């Protein structure tokens, strides 16, 4: 190896023949360089930069950030977002009206573990009718909830409306 051109291994830094595809010491894959590229000062500067600990650290950091960026853009979702379901249910159940038979501004909250929570006013017309033995308005709400909950079966809390 004394009369052959040599380069440094990109992983372990030991001198190896320029034509080597793999380092004979550590087995690391070597970049493929043309004969005239090995004498190029820019290539030598990049190879020397990579051999420094800071160069390796920066390269590793860039690789991790790249993997994180690709991974976060390809993340799997298990269903629609909570806010989307809340908006859709509020529109479906109350037609996005502020004053309903269920009170002023009935609210819908969605939680993956707790399920769907609907808050109605204590003195709403539907609740008063239910207390007086006329459950028609209340039954309409329950029926709508049952029908709509089928669309989210297995996505949120696996609990059925009783």
Account of the 3D structure:
Helices cover 41% and strands 12% of the residues. The chain contains five helices and six strands. It has helices spanning 41-51, 53-73, 82-94, 125-131, 136-149; strands at 6-8, 15-17, 99-100, 103-104, 107-111, 115-119. Strands 1-2 form a two-stranded antiparallel sheet. The protein has a two-stranded antiparallel ribbon with strand order 3-4.
Identify low-pLDDT runs.
none
The termini sit apart by 83 Å
The fraction of residues in strands falls at 5-15%
SSE string, helices as H and strands as E: EEHHHEEEEHH
Rg is 33 Å
Instruction: Kindly name the structural category.
Output: alpha+beta
| Order of strands, widest sheet | 1-2
């Amino acid at each position: 190896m004394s009369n052959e051109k040599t380069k440094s291994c990109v992983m372990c830094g030991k001198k190896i023949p320029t034509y080597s595809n793999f380092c004979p010491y550590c087995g690391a894959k070597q970049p493929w360089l043309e004969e005239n590229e090995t004498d190029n000062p820019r290539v030598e500067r990049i190879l020397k930069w990579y051999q420094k600990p800071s160069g390796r650290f920066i390269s590793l950091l860039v690789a991790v950030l790249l993997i994180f960026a690709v991974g976060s853009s390809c993340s799997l979702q298990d269903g629609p977002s909570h806010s989307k379901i809340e908006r859709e249910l509020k529109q479906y159940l109350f037609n996005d009206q502020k004053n309903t038979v269920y009170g002023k501004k009935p609210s819908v909250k969605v939680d993956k573990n707790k399920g769907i929570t609907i808050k109605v006013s204590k003195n709403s017309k539907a609740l008063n009718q239910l207390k007086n033995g006329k459950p028609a308005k209340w039954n309409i709400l329950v029926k709508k909830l049952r029908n709509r909950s089928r669309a989210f079966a297995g996505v949120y809390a696996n609990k059925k409306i009783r």
